[in-house]
Amino acid sequence: MRPEDLRLPPHTPGLRIGLFGGSFNPAHDGHRMASLTALRRLQLDRVWWLVTPGNPLKDNAALPSLDQRIDTARALAEHARIHVTGVEARLRTRYTADTLRALKLRCPGVRFVWIMGSDNLTSFHRWNEWRAIARMMPIAVIDRPGTTHRAVASPAANWLARYRLSENEAAALAGSEAPAWVFLHGKRSDLSSTYLRKLANRD
Hints:
This protein is α/β, with parallel strands linked by helices.
């Protein structure tokens, strides 16, 4: 593992930074599109792609190395305000809630926003300490094809309903006290890491 891949990206108090976590196996244009949407609509200064060593809810036996996934993600991101990092491996955190606690501790004064696709909101209630995550920092949900209605009808969305901001308030999210969340609609990508892996296995 390369030491530079495990460092925290540059940050200073007051910055508005979106955190976009996942295995990025592989990274694809949907990740980039969601990040650009978040940068623009939430008026963020940066988006950090947190490339996880392994998702505890998935089988990681065939997962490519962290180095390989980081390299692919950086090549795909190709944006000065999207930073790719494997810092989770350095933090030795297994679950998202623990990662977010560690980042808040190490980055005082940074205004973090957790970014997820609407497909993840459908199963958010199964995540370890999902309510703690919602209370820890604001959440931006980016619409994904085929999951819009299931996402807003999900158990987590129902629990969070009273804390939802309208889309025209999206720019205020980073400065809002958690729990707070917004559902962002816009240009969408049909690509998914699952689909791309299946496609690769056919070759």
